[in-house]
Amino acid sequence: MLLLLTITLADAKKPKVVPLPVNDWGHEVGMKADCFYPADFEKLQDGDRKMARQRALEEMKKQWSAQREDDVQMEERVIDDIETVLLGRPVLIETIAKSNLDQCRAFMKGGGLDAWKGWLVPLSAKLTAGECMSPLVDTMFDYLEITTSWYRSVTVCSGDRVRISATVSDKYRISDKGEWITVAGTGEKATGADLPCNIEGCNVGMLVGRFTGDDGIVTTFGIGAANEFRAPSNGQLSWTINDTTYYDNRYFKSATIEDRVAITVEPAQ
C-alpha cells in the first residue's frame, strides 16, 4: 500500500506533457504568443502535402504582415518578394516554414525582432541565387544619352546572345570644338585609362557596351554601328559613349531638327 501511494504521489508531481500542434498555431512554455507549427510534410500524401504547404505559406504571411497582433511586422515588399519566390517553388515552403518556426520561437521567448528580420529580408535573394528571372526575349528601343555615363541596365541571362545596333546617320561631338562623329567614333584608338573602354576595337567617342555579371566580373566591348554579345553569366548590360567627360557632348542640330542616335537591343538570331 505504501509503495502504491509513493508511486501515485510521484506521478502527480510530474508536469503534464502537452503535445505540440501540427499544421496549426500554438506555443510552448515561456513563449509570449503563438507560433505556427508546420506539418510533418514527409509523412503526408501528395495532395495533403500540397494543401499543408499552402496553409503554411498563408499563415506565415498573416504573421509577417501583422495580422496576428503579436508585435511581429515585416516590410510589405519583403513579404511580396518571398511569396513570389515560394509560389513558383512550393517545395521550398517546407524548409522555410520549419526555419520560420525557429525564428518565431526565439522571438516569442524574448529575442529581438531584428534577428528574425535579418533572416527574412535576404531570403528571396538567397532562394533565387544563381537563377536568372529575366532572359532577354523582347526587342528594346531607346535613344542614346550622350551626356551621361553608363545607363539603361538591361538584365540578361547566362548564354543569352544579344545584338545591339545603332543608327549611323545621327551625329554628335564629344567636345565643344570637336568634329562631328557617329557611333563609330573618331577613328582614334582608345588608350586612356579613364575611358570606359580602352581595349582593342574601342575607338574614342564610339558607342561601347559593358556587361556586369552577378559574379562581379565586368566586361567592356566596342559596339559602333552594331555588335553581338554573348552573356558569360547572369548580369546587367549597359552602354555609353567612349568619352571621359560628358557635360560638353552635343548632338548635331540643323535649324529645329536635332539628331538623336536610336538604339536597338534584341535577341540575336
Task: Give an overview of the whole structure.
With 269 residues, the protein is an alpha+beta fold. It has two domains: 114 residues, no CATH class; 128 residues, Sandwich (Jelly Rolls), CATH 2.60.120.430. Helix content is 28%, strand content 22%. The chain is built from six helices and 14 strands. A four-stranded antiparallel beta sheet has the order 3-14-5-9, with no helix packed on it. Helix 2 crosses helix 4 and helix 4 packs antiparallel against helix 5. The model has no long low-confidence stretch (mean pLDDT 91).
Percent of residues in beta strands?
15-25%
Q: Would you count the extended β strands for me? A: 14
Q: How much helix, percentage-wise, in residues?
A: 25-40%
N-C termini distance: 93 Å
Please write the CATH class name of the largest domain. Mainly Beta
Spans of at least 5 consecutive residues with low confidence: none
Mean pLDDT: 91
Q: Sketch the major β-sheet.
A: 4 strands, antiparallel
